[in-house]
Write a structure and sequence with these properties.
The complex is a heterodimer of chains A (about 325) and B (about 325). With about 325 residues, chain A is an all-alpha fold. Chain A has helices at about 1-20, 20-30, 35-60, 80-90, 90-120, 130-140, 145-155, 160-170, 185-210, 215-225, 230-255, 260-265, 275-285, 290-320. Chain A folds into two domains: about 1-60, no CATH class; about 90-320, MetI-like (MetI-like fold), CATH 1.10.3720.10. Helices cover about 75% and strands about 0% of the residues of chain A. In chain A, helix 5 runs antiparallel to helix 11 (about 230-255). The longest helix of chain A has about 30 residues, at about 90-120. Chain B has about 325 residues and is mainly alpha-helical. Among the domains of chain B are: about 1-40; about 110-265, MetI-like fold (Orthogonal Bundle). In chain B, the strands form two sheets. In chain B, strands 1-2 form a two-stranded antiparallel sheet. The radius of gyration of chain B is 26 Å and the shape is globular. Chain B starts with 13 loop residues before the first helix and ends in a 7-residue tail after the last helix. The chains are: A mainly alpha (about 325), B mainly alpha (about 325). At the A-B interface, helix 3, helix 5, helix 6, helix 7 and helix 9 of A face helix 1, helix 6, helix 7, helix 8 and helix 9 of B.
């Protein structure tokens, strides 16, 4: 009862606030809490609606047409669901999805493995660990495009430092392999750069997970004379798992839509071996100018990311409760 | 003291500490090699930069930096010899390569664009984000969780998927290749991070402070301005740096929506071309100048990084 009453009161206050022009209410100086909340939140929502949602709705509309953005005078025809049908049966799109899956799987696998191991080591709290942690974090703060560009230099056949180091340790001929030019190596070249760049991210979140485990649990395990091995598998790993999942999800979302770094490294080549979904989309939209078709593809990608994001937020909230 | 305790579980043993420190330091050093290499390549001459085996010892030169900021043209030996004494170090270096400086390159204008767009969008995003975060933190907003999810989900969108319709919209509105267009776009991307981060910071400020101020006769807005904001300065500063770094580093929108007057540095740096292919020392010099602010900010932010990358959910 009391609740219903207050909500009616609030609603009327809300109406009153809505009816009062901004300048006048400021002169009254006592904006109601409801009005303050609205004035504070509305601008952000409006901006997001204008810059994100409105274009998105437009894209949905275009995805049912054969519109081409470089031909302004051509007649735009309604093609129904044909764009979506063609995408789901297009072998090029499936190749792109395979390239994306390879990239996402291996980057996450390597980053989680190395990132967790590093976090576990840093959690030993040796002298100077804070300093070295900061150094390790640097790569993830850089611009992915700039990173892709300078790794292209390191990967140069003959003159590149990466090739030189590999040659130095394996004795392979310096001209016998091209990281970016070979069909077999290029998918791994982009995995290496992404792992170099983003392992610190996974490490930092895993470290937070390890530090969230209270000491008394380990002390209890000590009383029970649990072995180190046992302690790791039944305390450390399960308790850090929500954090690891969070990092995996976020990296998954980010790498699913990877564009900048790969564009600068390989541009999708050689052939289409490293053509991940975003690069295919860019090609369709801005090189072939198939706006309707690419809009449909964009919507499909968006729905996939949106689903992942939904899970991500649930994971965030779970971690938050700790 | 605790390190002397004979067998503490919580405190790792000295051996495990030293093994850990060796491995971590090793990783840190290896991971720094690419960055170190780029910085020193900036000080190499073009032939040194592409020599095999790669040179670690070389004669440092500012040629890369000179080439980064200038455009040059090749001249005959006689023409160069007939010129007056060179003005400044860059002219001296260029003339040794039988070239003369004919003008300024586009690097500095692109760098300026990056500054304007990054700072403009950061100021806007933090302003909007602070208000919105306060709104969500202090008031019962209907559908608050859904709105917050909506705000976050806009950041998760694949940039290329959004770029198609934004490109069309900007073309209609005349915002293509303008700083204003980029500022609005980056603000929209950053405001989601700003709201989530700042809400976390504001949740930590006890409500009692404002309530006390309001009992003393402050209005809601006054208490927001005079009580909450001063308490939130660390959070606002950290948020601003995160927004700045994002806008500074962004490439996908920049390369698709700008081509000339509003182009930022990231799409420009890979296009720096010298005679016969990429001018790697100039590219490296441009990269170094571009990356140094990020290094400074990373060090400033180190305590808040975890918060920033998890949208404020994980606080250590």
């Amino acid at each position: 009862m009391a609740q219903a009453k207050s909500s009616i009161l609030e609603r009327s206050a809300d109406k009153a606030a809505a009816l009062t022009p901004a300048r006048m209410s400021r002169s009254i100086k006592g904006l109601s809490d409801r009005a303050v909340a609205w004035w504070f939140i509305a601008p952000t929502i409006i901006l997001l609606l204008a810059i994100n949602i409105f274009p998105l709705i437009w894209a949905v509309k275009l995805s049912f047409t054969n519109y081409k953005a470089n031909r302004l005078n051509a007649v735009v025809k309604d093609v129904g669901l044909r764009n979506y049908e063609r995408i789901l049966t297009d072998p090029d799109i499936w190749l792109a999805m395979q390239a994306t899956a390879h990239f996402v799987f291996w980057t996450i696998f390597l980053q989680t493995l190395i990132g967790f191991a590093l976090a576990y080591l840093i959690d030993r709290k040796f002298r100077g660990h804070a300093f070295w942690t900061t150094i390790i974090l640097i790569p993830m703060m850089l611009s992915p495009a700039v990173v892709g560009n300078f790794w292209r230099f390191l990967y140069q056949p003959q003159i590149g430092l990466f090739n030189y180091i590999v040659t130095f340790f394996t004795g392979a001929e310096p001209s016998s392999f091209q990281m970016l030019g070979s069909v077999d190596l290029a998918p791994w070249a982009i995995v290496i750069v992404d792992t170099w760049m983003w392992t610190p991210y996974v490490m930092l979140i895993c470290l937070a997970g390890l530090r969230s485990i209270p000491d008394y649990i380990y002390e209890a395990a000590e009383v029970d004379r649990a072995s180190n091995w046992r302690r790791f598998w039944s305390i450390t790993l399960p308790m850090a798992l929500p954090f690891i999942m969070l990092a995996v999800l976020f990296r998954g979302i980010e790498n699913f839509k990877m564009f900048d770094m790969v564009t600068l490294l390989t541009g999708g080549g050689p052939g289409s071996t490293t053509e991940v979904a975003s690069i295919t989309l860019k090609r369709e939209a801005f090189e072939k100018w198939r706006t309707g078709y690419s809009s449909a593809f964009a919507i499909i990608l968006f729905v996939a990311v949106f689903g992942l994001a939904n899970i991500y937020v649930k994971a965030l909230n779970r971690v938050k409760q700790r | 003291m605790s390190s002397n305790a004979a067998h503490s579980v919580v405190e790792p043993s000295n051996t495990s500490k030293s093994v850990a420190s060796i491995l971590v330091v090793l990783y840190a050093l290896i991971t720094m090699i690419p960055l170190f290499w780029i910085v020193i390549t900036g000080f190499k001459s073009p032939p040194d930069s592409i020599s095999y085996p790669p040179k670690i010892v070389f004669e440092p030169t500012l040629e890369g930096y000179c080439n980064l900021f200038t455009t040059r043209s090749r001249q005959t030996r006689e023409y160069v010899a007939a010129l007056g004494p060179p003005e400044g170090i860059c002219e001296e270096i260029t003339r040794k390569r039988q070239m003369v400086i004919v003008g300024k390159s586009n690097y500095w204008p692109r760098f300026q664009n990056s500054l304007i767009i990054a700072f403009g969008s950061t100021i806007l995003a933090v302003f909007l984000g602070t208000l919105t975060a306060y709104g969500f933190s202090r008031f019962k907003v209907p559908l608050a969780d859904d709105l917050l999810f909506f705000i976050l989900s806009t950041r998760m969108m694949p940039p290329i998927a959004v770029a198609v319709p934004i490109y069309l919209m900007y073309r209609k509105l005349g915002l293509s290749d303008t700083a204003l267009g980029m500022i609005l776009l980056y603000t929209a991307v950053n405001v989601s991070l700003a709201v989530w981060l700042l809400k976390g910071f504001m949740d930590e400020i006890p409500r009692e402070y404002e309530e006390a101020a309001m009992i003393d006769g402050y209005t809601r807005l006054q208490s927001f301005w005079k009580v909450v904001l001063p308490q939130a300065t660390t959070g606002i500063a950290a948020t601003a740096i995160f927004c700045l770094i994002f806008a500074w580093n962004e490439y996908a929108f920049a390369v698709l929506l700008t081509s000339g007057s509003a182009q930022t540095a990231p799409p420009f740096i890979p296009t720096i071309i010298g005679e016969g292919g990429l001018d790697w020392p100039a590219v490296a010099a441009g990269t170094t100048i571009f990356v140094v602010p990020i290094l400074v900010f990373t060090i400033l932010l180190r305590k808040q990084l975890l918060r920033g990358i998890t949208f404020g959910a994980v606080r250590k």
